[in-house]
Amino acid sequence: MEEKTKAGSKRTKLGFWKWAIASIVLRLILSYFSKYLNLSSRPEVSTPLTSLRRLAEGYWLKQLSISPYSGSMYHGSPLLLSILGPLTAKKIEGHASHLLCSLVSVIADFISAILIRATGHILVTAHGHSLKALGLDKLFKDTVEILPSGDIAALVYLWNPFTIISCIGFNTSPIENLFVILSLYGASAGLVPLAAFGWVIASHLSLYPLVLVIPVIFLLGYGLDAPPRKLFVQSNLLVGEERSKDQVGVKNKPIKTTNFAWRRVVLFFFWATIWITYVLILCAISMKDYGGLAEMFKRTYGFTLTVKDLSPNIGVLWYFFAEVFDFFRNFFVIVFHVNILFMILPLAIRLNHRPCFLVFVYLAISSMLKSYPSVGDSALYLSLLVLFVNELSEMKLSFFLFCGYVGVSLLSPVMHNLWIWRGTGNANFYFATAMAYASFQIILVVESVSAMLNYDRKIRKLCTTPL
C-alpha cells in the first residue's frame, strides 16, 4: 500500500509539472501574437489602474520631466512606473516592447501558482492533523484519496482563461495577484516578514487588499484553517476523562490551543511598519519633483475612492455614477465603499477559524464592489476557492455558477461591440452583463460560505456523536 501511495504521489507531481510547463508555453506563444488579439483595449481586462498602456504614457511624461500624473492617464504606483516603465520602451531584436512586459506577467503567474500550490499543501497537512486530533481519521483518509487541493488550485490558476487573458492583456493584474498570494503564503507558512511584505506591497498597488489584514492576523494568531476551536477543547476534555477512567498515567497534551499568539501579530505589525516606511521613502524620492507624496495619494488612492473615471468596465459603479445626480454623488461613493467595511466584521467573527477561506471571501466581495474591477480579480479568488475543494464538495449550484461565468464571459464582449462599435445597442446592454456578473459573484460567495459552515456542522456532529 505504501509503495502504491508513493508511486501515485510521484505521478501526481510529474503530472502537475507537465501541465504547469504547458501553461507557460501557451502563455509565451499567445504573448508573441498578443498584438493581433488586442486584449489590452478590452475593458474587462485592463482598467485605468492596471493598464500598461497608461503606464507607458506616464513613463513617457516622466522622461520629459513632466509629472506622470499629468492629465488623466496614469494612476498607478510610482514604483511600478520606475520598474516596468523602462520595459515598455525597450525592444527585443526589433520586436515590440510588449514582449518584455508579457514575460514579466508570465513569470509572475508561474510564481503565484507555485505559492498557491505550497499554501495548499500546508492547508491539507493542517487539515489532516485537525481531523486526526478530533479522532476523525476515516474522514481524512477519504479526502486525501483525491488530488491534493494545492495542485488543483495551482493548475486552475494557470489554466483559468481569466488568468491567461490577464497575463497577455498588457496589464499589472498578475503582479498585484502575486503579492496577495505572497502575503497569504507567508502567513500560512509562519514567515511573518514575508507576509507583511506581501500585504504592504499588495495594498500599495491596489488599496483593496488592506482588508486582508484581518485574515492575516487570524492566520498568525490562531493558526491555519481548522474546525471551530471549541471542538478541540471538548475533545481534549473527553480524552482526559477517558484516560482518567482507564487510569493511564500518560500526560494529555492539548491538541490545539485556543490562545492567541500576540507575539507573532505584534511582529507582523512591526515588519509592516518597516515595509511601509521603505515604500513611502521610495515613493517620496520618485515624486520629489512632481508634488511629493500628497500628489501621489491624490492621483492614486484618491482616484480609486472617488471613482472619477466612468469608462465602462465589468463592475457596476461606472453606470451608477454616470446616472446619479452630482448632488448625491459623494453620499453614494461613501455608501459603496463603506459597504465593504460593513461586511468585514460579521464575516470575521463567523469565520475566524477559517482565515484562508476568509481571504477568498474578502477578495470576492472586493471584486464585486471595487471601483475598477477586471477579470484578473476573479482569476485570483476562483483559484483560492479551489484550495477548499475537499471542504466544499457538497456546495450547491456549482454547475449553474460555472455556466453563468462562461455565459457572462462570452456575452460581455458581444454586448460591448453592439454598443460601442456597431451602434445597435446602448449602455444598458453592456451593463446587463455587469449586473449578471455581480449577481453570480454574490451567489458564489453565499453558497461557498454556506457550504463551509455546513462542513463545520458535519464535523461537529461527528465529534459529538458517540461511537
| Tally of DSSP β-strands | 0
H/E topology pattern = HHHHHHHHHHHHHHHHHHHHH
Enumerate how many helices there are, as a single number: 21
Whole-Å distance between the termini? 27 Å
Unreliable stretches, pLDDT < 50, 5 or more residues?
A: 1-8, 237-257
The class by helix and strand makeup works out as mainly alpha
Helix content, binned percent: over 70%
Beta-strand share of residues: under 5%
Overall pLDDT score: 83
Keywords:
single chain; 467 residues; mainly alpha; globular; disordered N terminus
Structural description of this entry:
This protein is mainly α and 467 residues long. It contains 21 helices and no strands. α8 packs across α19 (375-386) and α9 runs parallel beside α11 (213-222). The two termini are 27 Å apart. The model is unreliable at 1-8 and 237-257 (pLDDT under 50).
Write the layout of secondary structure elements.
Layout: H1 2-32, H2 34-37, H3 52-63, H4 78-89, H5 98-133, H6 137-144, H7 149-159, H8 161-168, H9 173-189, H10 192-206, H11 213-222, H12 229-246, H13 262-286, H14 292-299, H15 301-306, H16 317-323, H17 326-350, H18 355-369, H19 375-386, H20 398-421, H21 427-464
Helix pairs in contact: 1-5, 1-7, 3-4, 5-6, 5-7, 5-8, 5-9, 7-19, 8-19, 9-10, 9-11, 10-13, 11-18, 17-18, 18-19, 18-21, 20-21
